[in-house]
Design goal:
Elements lengths: L1 E6 L5 H14 L3 E6 L1 H11 L4 E3 L7 E2 L2 E2 L1 H28 L4 E5 L2 H10 L3 E5 L12 H14 L4 E4 L26 E4 L2 H14 L3 E4 L6 H7 L2 E5 L2 H9 L4 E4 L5 H13 L2 E3 L5 H9 L2 H6 L12 H28 L1 H4 L17
Helix pairs in contact: 1-2, 3-4
Length: about 350
């Protein structure tokens, strides 16, 4: 089948899933990638030279560890105003490429374009997991509404998560390719907005660390050989750290409820702990003194860090099979109809509305 695959450009979790799932689907299908500029280099470095096009994306504005919601909304206004014109261009592109199905990882642009073009959409992501967690906290309610909007319309949806998901996380196969050891250093996974506040704390404490993201450094080797991880509370780094039994201390970004929820779940796994920049200097020594306890803790069955790549591909193939079946059924209906026998144009048969979430 001819499939268009898009992902969000905020963080690397969406792009990481695309870099794993895309090549697996390429074995049986023609895949056309729609990638935000922010993660284009990351994806291209992992899947090689493939057909891809740039797509817009909504992003957060951050000050230090905090997401500035008002500034983020204001920044999104121009893109929201351009949304209809972007969609029209994407609709034309999908039709020109003869796309039969769309896979979206938290990207609303291609999903809405597919909806307008009458193309089935499979939505796969992690952030939407917040919709499944009941909370009366205003930030939780707003985040749940926002994630639903950013998912766009879908015919089927799969949430991937190490807690409460339809399937578990996608763990890159290379994560397991290195021997596990304890090199006596902390792997830091910090965006630039946090480094100014956190690095001086670690330097004062005399803690050895290796800093990421850094395209010049070997992240996979560092993760396999570190003593523990200190990171923001992104889903992908948490899942990969726990999968390698590396204790993790997370600093969720204030104003981002998904990371707040991820951090809460890290506490519940018993494989790590959560903190804030203000508490870091007091919490870090306690965390480092408890590494053996985190390593020896048995993960509850409520959590799943097993690689679900095979399962998600099977779920995608099941979705594509239903798309083919429906398409073939419509064709048979149209060919056998009196209207077609009279030479009328083929069209969508009445009474076959798709069940769509819009």
């Amino acid at each position: 089948m001819r499939i268009a695959y898009s992902c969000a450009g905020e963080g690397l979790g969406h792009a990481t899933r695309m870099a794993v799932i895309g090549p697996l689907l390429q074995r049986s299908h023609d895949i056309f990638y729609f990638i935000p500029e922010t993660v284009k280099g990351f994806v291209s470095s992992r899947i090689g030279k493939v057909s891809h096009e740039e797509i817009p994306h909504f992003s957060f504005i951050k000050r230090g560890e905090r997401v500035c919601l008002i500034l983020t909304v204001l920044r999104a206004v121009p893109l929201a105003l351009a949304f209809p014109f972007v969609l029209l261009g994407l609709v034309r592109r999908l039709r020109n490429l003869l796309i039969e199905a769309v896979i979206s990882d938290f990207d609303p642009f291609l999903a809405w374009a597919a909806w307008m073009a009458g193309i089935p959409v499979l939505q796969i992501n992690h952030p939407g997991i917040v919709q499944r967690v009941s909370s009366i906290h205003p930030q939780a309610i707003l985040t749940s509404m926002a994630t639903r909007m950013l998912e766009g319309p879908w015919d089927e949806r799969i949430h991937l998560s190490f807690y409460g998901g339809d399937v578990g996380p996608i763990i890159r196969p290379e994560i397991f390719s290195r021997p596990i050891s304890d090199g006596g250093f902390v792997l830091l996974n910090l965006k630039h907005c946090l480094r100014e506040a956190i690095l001086p704390i670690l330097d004062r404490m005399g803690i050895r660390y290796r800093l990421f993201p850094d395209p010049q450094e070997d992240f996979i080797g560092a993760l396999a050989s570190c003593s523990c991880v200190l990171s923001t509370a992104g889903h992908q780094i948490i899942a990969e750290s726990i999968a390698l039994n590396k204790p993790i201390l997370v600093i969720p970004q204030a104003g981002q409820w998904e990371q707040q929820l991820n951090a809460r779940m890290v506490d519940q796994t018993g494989k790590g702990h959560s903190t804030t920049v203000d508490r870091l200097e007091g919490d870090l020594p306690k965390f480092l003194g408890s590494l053996e306890r985190y390593r020896s803790h048995v993960l509850s069955s409520l959590f799943n860090v097993a690689d679900s790549s095979r399962e998600i591909v099977l779920r995608i193939e099941d979705f594509l099979g239903k798309v083919r079946q429906e398409k073939y059924g419509r064709l048979l209906f149209a060919v056998g109809s009196p209207a077609h026998q009279d030479g009328a144009r083929l069209g969508e048969p009445q009474g076959c509305d798709k069940k769509r979430a819009v």
